Structure formats: structure tokens, C-alpha cells
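User: Could you write out the 3D structure of this protein bound to MCU? I've included everything you need below.
Assistant: Certainly. Input first, then the structure.
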Amino acid sequence: MSVSRLFFVFLSVLPLWICGTTCTPVKRATCPDIPANPVATPITSLTNPFTFANGQNVTTKDDWACRQAEISQLLQTYELGSKPPKPSTFSASFSRNTLTINAGENGNSISFTSSITFPTSGTAPFPAFIALDGGSLPHPPGVAIITLNTNDIAVQNDASSRGQGKFFQLYGTNASAGAMIAWAWAASRIIDAIEATPSTNIDPTKIGVTGCSRDGKGALVAGAFDDRIVLTIPQESGSGGTDCWRISDSILASGVSTQTASEIVQENVWFSTAFDQFASTSVDPLPFDHHLLIGLVAPRGLLAIDNTGIDWLGAESSFGCLKAASTIWEALGSPDTMGFSQSANHAHCAFPSSQQDDLNAFVNKFLFGQDTNTTNIEDNAGGYTFAMPGTWDPWTAPTLD
Ligand code: MCU
């Protein structure tokens, strides 16, 4: 081979050699620092997704990656507590439809299990839902259900459950985590285990997460904090889920008996104790609201399922919060990968058949790779109005290149 030909071959393999199989596009060189006191100025509208905490604008997709990292950090610091990374000791095994996960850190170790219910139809490797406490959706054909037992990981009986569960045996009872971020940690470990254990017959690239009510809040947090999850379906998650704190305060003030931050922190341990100071006084100094938690999922698939028949759930708050969040999918050029389906007059967590088509469209698109129509899924059973842009969301979505 001639020298010039050798040089040409060298040049053509160079990118592969540098990148291996994990090459990602060149990112913004540095992300802006979070200001020392991001909770200084009270904000009565929802916070602008497209402005960094230091006031700079988000103008590109690389900026958005930085903004997502910032939002993730702010949510962990002021509301949810820290989600630890994969523990330094980790192993997984699978037998008799049970996934066993062993994790160790700082001399502590735990073992927890998840049962997998396999579909009676379809082909392996199967797509799957990680379903908090089994979830409350009708099981989609061909999809496996991996049950995450929430109380085993972080107990959620009531306000006295703080620090109880295997997560806290591993990370200490003083860990900042509330129960939801602890479950999100466990969902990530389940995905690690699936990736490491091909004998499960689960496709790790086709994993969704779901749960209803308190577990719907948890499903949203799990989907927000692991971008390997391709579809997030919070069902009737209410306050602490797809509702925005500020909108819930406002609809309570207008006479709708809905759950707000000040009530929720007294009821259970879903949040870090760092959230108490805001919940007990005002949520306005928070540099985020839950439209930004929802936006951590973007542009991955998200279908929020709501029930307008129960005031406590604050479906109007969820509607506005999701509308505000939808500008993030829009800015990323992916408006069709998020939708919200609201229906009325049914028992809490009883999935009504009127929402089945919406569910099928999302499941078939994200777990089976089909080209289904998820355009404008925005069922508005409550007849809510929410101006875009408006008082709650005084911004327009930029086009992020
Ligand atoms: C909607 O989720 C919660 C709600 O936040 C609580 O206030 C209520 O007690 O329980 C709901 C729930 O989890 O119901 C199963």
C-alpha cells in the first residue's frame, strides 16, 4: 500500500478511534454556574425554561443540555434530595421471573428484588414498563411489567416514614433524599440490571415508567432523572407530580379544594426536608416549578394521564403545568412526543377506556417503534383555559438549533 493510501486509511479510522462507540456531538464548552443564591427573588409566574438561573438565555440545544443539568441540580437541592450515582459495588441476577439487585457503598450493602410479569404475546426481547407498585394501567399486549416495590426502597406510609427503607440502609438515614428520588435511584438500578442481564429477555432500549397517584409522582421523577427511559406515563399524579406548586396555590385560593405544597409536606416524606422551608412559607422563591421537572423528560416520550373529577388532584394545575412544559418539547422541535389525556368522572386510578387510544399511540410509538399519530394529544375534559404565552408562562418557545 502506498504511503498516501495508508495516510487516507488512517484519516478515515481516526474518528472511530477517538469516539469508540460512545461518540456524542460536540457540546457547549462550559455550562453557566448556578448563582450562589438562586432562591433570592420570588417569582409569581412559572419560571422561564429558556433562561438560566444567572439570567442568560438558552438559545441552542447544547444550551438546553446545560439548562437541564441546572434544573436537575436545583430540583435535587431544594425539593427532592440527591440521587446518588450507580453504587461502587453492584451485581444483578435473574431467576424465576425475579430480578435480584445487590448494591454496596461505604461499607453498607443491600439486596432488593423486582418481579417481572412477561406478556403472553409478542416477541423477546420484550419492551417493558417499570411500574411503581405494579402501576394502574391496563397491561399493554407484548409489554413486560417490572414491579418496583416503593415501600421496600423508601417507605411512604406517612410523615413518620422519613429515612426508612433499603435506600437509607445503603446511604444512611440522614441522606437528603425524599422517597421519590430514592425510588428514581432504584428505577435506574433496575435498568442497570437489565442492561447487565440479557437473560431477562427485556430490551433495555425500550423501557417506560408508570405509576398512579403517589406512584405517579414517583414515575414522573424516575422518568425525569434517567434518560434511558423512553416513555414516562404519570397517571393522576396530582400535587407533587404534574401539578405546578404555584398554580395549585392559586386554584386553592379560588376555592378549589386541591392539595398544595404546604399540605403535602405534612402528609408524607416524598420530598427532601430541604423543601419544608418553601412549603411552609411560600413556593415563590423557588427557581423552578414542576413544568421544569416535566421538562427534564423532553424530548423523550411523555403522556400524562389525568382525572378532572377529583378536586384534590388539581387537574387544572396539571393542565397549565403541562401546557407550560409543552413549550420545551416545541423548542426542541419535538412537539408530538408529549401529550396529556384528561378524563372525568371515574374512580381514582381506574383507567377509563376513553384514554385507551392515547395510551396505545404512545406505547406503540415508544415501546414498539411504530409510526403512530401522537400529534396534539391534549384531551381537555376539564375545559380549562391556559393562555400561551400568558400570566403564568410569559415566554415564547425559541427554536433551539
Ligand atoms: C394523588 O396522590 C396522593 C395525594 O397526593 C395524597 O394527598 C393522597 O392522600 O393520596 C394520593 C394517593 O397516592 O392515592 C393513592
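The beta strands are 89-95, 98-105, 108-117, 126-132, 144-148, 202-212, 231-235, 301-307, 338-343, 378-379.
User: Perfect, thank you.
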